[in-house]
Every structure is written in structure tokens, then in C-alpha cells.
Amino acid sequence: MEFRRLRHGYTNRTVGDGLVVRKTYAGPEAEQRLGRELAALTRLRDRVPLPPVRAVRGRTLELGFVAGEHGEDLIDAGHATEVLRACGAVLREIHGADQDARGRVLVHGDYGPNNLLLEEKDGALRVTAVLDWEFAHLGDPVEDLAWCEWLVRTHHPEHAGVLGAFFAAYGGPVPSWEVRHKTMLNRCLELADFCARWEPGGVGVDVWHERAVATAAWPATQPDPSTGTT
Prior knowledge:
Distance between the termini: 53 Å
Oligomer: single chain
CATH class of the largest domain: Alpha Beta
Structural class: alpha+beta
CATH architecture of the largest domain: Alpha-Beta Complex
Helix content: 40-55%
Largest sheet: 5 strands, antiparallel
Radius of gyration: 17 Å
Shape: globular
Number of domains: 2
């Protein structure tokens, strides 16, 4: 079969033929990002649904194809609550895989419905694969919690009211809005810097600076997603 460019792949060149997916890394620290993804896929393969690793050839990671629909597409199709509930449950498993002496966990680094494949089984949506681990690292759980929330508030603002399903499925206390908001803003600035190192003066730099400005302008208080109160 012919290899074709896959949707939802923004940083690297990702192509597939229905059986195999080939992800070729580009930009700053390409080899290191490939290494992070490979390490995470190996470390978590018995804990969370992941695409199987077939081979590594230079800067290209070859993975087995996994069936499923992207979480963002399913949100657009009216399944926001189910998708966010699945996001929370799987993230709990990721963060529970390991913890170091400083309390750091394995952070995905770009976690959200954009990097989940899901399918319906027995009347419910289940995750078939968590994708794109190139920014994985040891860090604070709030990094993934806040970024998933940022993705929903930015790309699916009409569904921000069901973020409680995400936090409830994850379990445990929800970090304060102040902490979550600061984490979101910091990540936007980090991605602006990443784009600047890749293509100084490129459109990506402006996009992430604009997103940082928009994020900084969000109200100083937000309803607690676990209770709906401020």
C-alpha cells in the first residue's frame, strides 16, 4: 500500500499505509526526542495502550498501525465527556507507572485528546493507543493535567464545562487554578522557544506567542472543575 501523510501530525513527518506508521523526527533535538519516545513506549508497553515499536532507522521510528479515532474528532462528534473521562483514567495509569525520590512522575509532555486513539467497545469508548511521546520526561503531574485542560479550553471551549469528568477519572486533589494556569502559560512559552530554535522568525513563533498572550488573559479565577465552584 502507498504511504500517505497522516492527519494530526504537526511536529514531525508522519506517514502510514494502514499497517505501518513511520515517524521521521525533525527540528531541534530530533535524536533526543526520538529517544524519549522510544524509551516511553518501551517502559509503559505493559501498562497503557501503545503502538508497537517495529524498528528504528536513523531519525525514523517505525510503529505498528493501531485502529481508532482521534480524541479531538470524537469530541467534535459529540463525545466530549466520554473522551475526557478516558483521558483522565489513562493519565492516572501513566503517572502511576513510576515515581522517583523527588516525587516526579513520567510526564507525557503533550497529553490530551489530540494524542489519544479510541474506539467503541461494549457501548463505551476505550483508548487503543496513546501517541507522540517525544516530549516525555520526569516532572510534576500538573504538567499533563494542565496541558490537557489547556487543549480543551483552547480548541474545544464549548466543552470546558465537562473538564470535571477528566479530573474525576484521574482522581486525587485538583491543583489550584493558579498553578494550572501558570503551568499552561509556561508551556506555551516553551513551545514558542522550541519553534524559535527550529525556525527563527517563523510563523510558529508568532502562533505560540499569540497563544501565550491569550492564555495569560484568562480570568484570574475559574470554576473548580471538580465542584463547579470558584
